[in-house]
Amino acid sequence: MNYEIITAPLIGAVIGTVTNGIAIKMLFRPWNAIYIGKFQVPFTPGLIPKEKPRIAKAIAKVVGGNLLDDETIRKTLLSEKMKEKILNALDQKIDMLSEYTETVSELLASKGFLETIDTKETELKTSASGTITKKLVDGNTASALLDFATDELTKNANPMISGIASKAINSARDSIIAKINSIITEKAPSIIAEFIDTEYEKIKNMPVSECIVLLKEKFPDYHEKLWNIYEQTIRDHLSKMLHGLNISEIVEQKINEFELPELERIIMEIAQKELNALVALGGLLGFIMGFINVLLP
User: Fold this and answer.
1) Which terminus has fewer CB within 10 Å in the chain: N or C?
2) Tally: H helices and E strands in the chain
3) How far is CA 97 from the centre of its chain?
4) How far is Cα 171 from Cα 100, in angstroms, rounded to an integer?
5) What is the gyration radius of the CA atoms in the chain, in angstroms?
6) Which residues have CB under 8 Å from 279's CB, separation 6+?
7) What DSSP string describes 221-242?
8) Distance between CA 123 and CA 133 in Å, rounded?
9) What is the per-residue pLDDT across 210-235, written as a single tens digit (0 to 9) for each?
10) Structure confidence by residue, pLDDT tens digits, 81-133
11) Exposure of 263 by Cβ count < 10 A (0-12 exposed, 13-18 middle, 19+ buried)?
12) Cβ(290)–Cβ(9) under 8 Å?
């Protein structure tokens, strides 16, 4: 009996399996270069430890440029699934707040936000009073008020008196408008600031549960309003945020920070099945080559 026809394929299979197994191990091992005297042993360190920075850069480029690009993240953040999650979380939070009996200021204080919110209210008050006053002046509010007063005078006063008054008003129109604008500029900021303070204090002293009821009454479509604000924010600012975040750089840095044993473990967990298949394929090819070698004269 010719035993070579059995042993040759088996030996080929063993050699193919061992060779591929060693080759896969050499992807990771050794982790550091090995020297004999001044000479570095070839193929040390392994391919992945040796090329780790380049591999990290390549993976980061693919992840940041193709897998997690602006458009992909935007679609994910604005998807119907994300909308459902956000609005459901919002409803759960509102339902929880609906049961709070403490005041808004007590809740904010307990969370450590009261001082920050007070500061923001002061900033808003200052900004809003100045902005609204400017818009009143720039929007010709004085002229509109004067026109309204003239119309009312014409409708309700004696014709002779209204005629004289209208002529007097028209002749002094520019100076009257200037005076009204001066009064607006002088008085409006403090009036607006006082109004904001009053409303803010009213809300602060209101029980949280009542605030939620008021919110639902004034904004029955708050779901869509909040989603529209969120959607517009994502569309307007996502690219700038991602540019500042620099996903590619983060991925590259994270991969470079991995210790080699940890990196090996992660890659093996991801590709264990495929790498085992390569080892088995090496054994199969060795078996076939051994069998063919016996058959060849």
Assistant:
1) C
2) 14, 2
3) 25
4) 61
5) 39
6) 17, 20, 21, 24
7) THHHHHHHHHHHHHHHHHHHHH
8) 16
9) 888 888 888 888 888 889 999 999 98
10) 999 999 999 889 888 888 888 898 988 888 888 899 999 989 988 899 989 99
11) buried
12) yes
| 191: enclosing H helix or E strand | helix 173-204
Q: Residue 24: name the closest of 266, 264, 286, 270 by CA.
A: 264
Label residue 104 exposed, middle or buried (CB < 10 Å: 0-12, 13-18, 19+). buried
Location of structure tokens 């602006």: 70
> Collapsing DSSP states into helix, strand and coil, what is residue 100?
coil
Q: How many CB atoms lie within 10 A of CB 56?
A: 19
| Tokens 């992660």, residue located | 266
pTM value is 0.58
Helix (H) or strand (E) holding 36: strand 35-36
d(CA 108, CA 116): 9
Report yes or no: 287 and 103 within 8 Å, Cβ to Cβ.
Answer: no
CA gap 172, 150 in Å, rounded: 12
Quickly count: other Cβ atoms within 10 Å of residue 157's Cβ: 14
pLDDT reported for residue 153:
64
Alpha carbon dihedral 100, 103, 109, 112, in 10-degree steps, equals 40
